[in-house]
Amino acid sequence: MKYKSSTIKNKWKKTQWLLKDTYFQKYVPHTLPFNQKNLSAMLNDYTSVFFKPTDGSGGKNIIRIRKIDSGYQSQLNTTKTSYSTTAQLYRDLNRFAGSRSYLLQKGIQLAKSNAKPFDIRVMVQKTRQGDWVSTALFTKVGNPNKVATNYNQGGTIGTFSKTMHGANFSSTFTSQLELELKRLGVAVGKNFDRHYKGFHELGLDVAVDSKGKPWILEVNTRPQIYPLKASIDKSLYNKILSYGKHYGRFK
Ligand SMILES: Nc1ncnc2c1ncn2[C@@H]1O[C@H](COP(=O)(O)OP(=O)(O)O)[C@@H](O)[C@H]1O
Ligand SMILES: [Mg+2]
């Protein structure tokens, strides 16, 4: 963890960086700070809303809220709770948050590969010359009973093309998406450089909805790669380390 690359934990700040650039607007799901007014507004507009700690990581303390016939249902890990009004839901979320800042984000219906929801990690790294390169693309395949696909939440690492195939996307569509995501990664790198100094790598979490549309869920400034080491894609792990050498990333 001691390698040289800046860290920004605040997801709200990073989302604002992206939204200042019109290029990213269609990729960023509607996101607002958590408060009662914003909760009501988001639940008016969307059937599913994610409640996430502004400085969170590892898929921890994320609650998915869904509209159901009798009101709303929240899910934390595998635990579901029902509410009949937004006021009751708000009270519980507020108690859960305590003094910690939270965000609300439009829920994306993740595409499923062999019945398991997944999202994509786009690893972007800066060369010694200062150019951003999307060096690796892999998937995080989630446990269908959980709300987050993270490795720490029981997710597994998958190969991009195999996971896309398992979700019934054609190989033509998959190659086009690969190009689009790699371009997106480079564009995010350039955007982040305009807002803060010292980034050498970034990891985009990109959801693909059931129609195949990509959505940036977050941009990690300290992306973990150890789960890749033991996966089928050891070659990707080695590629990331070869690009990471010049800024001191050795694992
Ligand atoms: N808006 C959303 N729609 C659908 N799934 C989401 C959404 N936000 C988060 N998730 C799920 O939760 C996981 C963790 O969310 P993320 O924003 O990446 O936070 P963390 O920093 O904890 O990894 C995502 O990889 C995804 O599986
Ligand atoms: Mg994440």
Automatic annotation (TrEMBL):
<dbReference type="GO" id="GO:0046872">
    <property type="term" value="F:metal ion binding"/>
</dbReference>
<dbReference type="InterPro" id="IPR026838">
    <property type="entry name" value="YheC/D"/>
</dbReference>
<dbReference type="GO" id="GO:0005524">
    <property type="term" value="F:ATP binding"/>
</dbReference>
<protein>
    <recommendedName>
        <fullName>ATP-grasp domain-containing protein</fullName>
    </recommendedName>
</protein>
<keyword id="KW-0547">Nucleotide-binding</keyword>
<keyword id="KW-0067">ATP-binding</keyword>
<feature type="domain" description="ATP-grasp">
    <location>
        <begin position="20"/>
        <end position="245"/>
    </location>
</feature>
<dbReference type="InterPro" id="IPR011761">
    <property type="entry name" value="ATP-grasp"/>
</dbReference>
<dbReference type="Pfam" id="PF14398">
    <property type="entry name" value="ATPgrasp_YheCD"/>
</dbReference>
